[in-house]
Amino acid sequence: MADLELSRNGDYHFTYKGQLRHAMLAKDLLEGKAGPADEKQRATQILDDLERDTAFGPSSYAGRGVFNVSYDRRGNIMQERTFNFVRRNSRILQMLYHERSQTVEVRGGSVPVQYLDTLSAMGYVPNGTITVRTNVHVRRDNASTRNTVDDETTLEWVINKLGEPALILILG
């Protein structure tokens, strides 16, 4: 489950608690290209890489390319300009501040086409929710649900199958 709170002044708080699947490791395991020793070594390297980001809390390897993680980050998107979860080259969620239009764009990542068959073969079914709470005007979204009470809008995206359209949210 991912949760993002964003205020008018640009302050944000993003949390994630759940599993992350490393697609390349999962693919190599499925195809028999990685044995137990290689799997263990690569899992350790992946965990070390994740933990370079101090926003990651305790994380562990669950097996078959799956990692149990917790993530908690606060910042100001107007000062930072961009925020990527997990990494720039492996985005699940990206937030960008566009100074010219005074808007914040939030985009979800999608599974690369080359991994869809592998993940399906492994029995992977996405199961998650992304919730955004904000007091910023919503210009565009593709949320599953949207509810506004007083000055706060709560948007929710339910992800339950591969290949669904990625999250899009424009605020400003």
Biggest sheet features: 7 strands, mixed
| Count of helical stretches | 4
Structural class: alpha+beta
User: Beta-strand level of the residues, as a percent range?
Assistant: over 45%
Binned, the helix content reads: 10-25%
- Total beta strand runs: 12
Q: Separation of termini?
A: 25 Å
Overall morphology:
globular
Radius of gyration, in Å, reads 17 Å
Write the H/E string, N to C. Answer: EEHHEEHEEEHEEEEE
Count of domains: 1
- Quick check: average pLDDT? 92
Strand order of the largest sheet: 3-4-2-1-8-11-10
- Residue runs with pLDDT of under 50 for 5 or more positions: none
How would you describe this structure in keywords?
alpha+beta; five-stranded antiparallel β-sheet; 172 residues; single chain; 47% strand; 4 helices; seven-stranded mixed β-sheet
Task: Walk me through what this model shows.
The chain has helices spanning 23-30, 36-50, 77-80, 113-121, and strands at residues 2-6, 11-21, 60-63, 66-76, 82-87, 90-98, 103-108, 128-134, 138-141, 145-149, 152-159, 168-171. It has 172 residues and is of the alpha+beta class. The protein has one domain (2-171). It has a seven-stranded mixed beta sheet. The chain has a five-stranded antiparallel beta sheet with strand order 5-6-7-12-9. A hairpin with a 2-residue loop joins strand 5 (82-87) and strand 6 (90-98). Helix 1 (23-30) crosses helix 4 (113-121). The longest helix is centred in the N-terminal third of the chain and has 15 residues, at 36-50. The radius of gyration is 17 Å and the shape is globular.
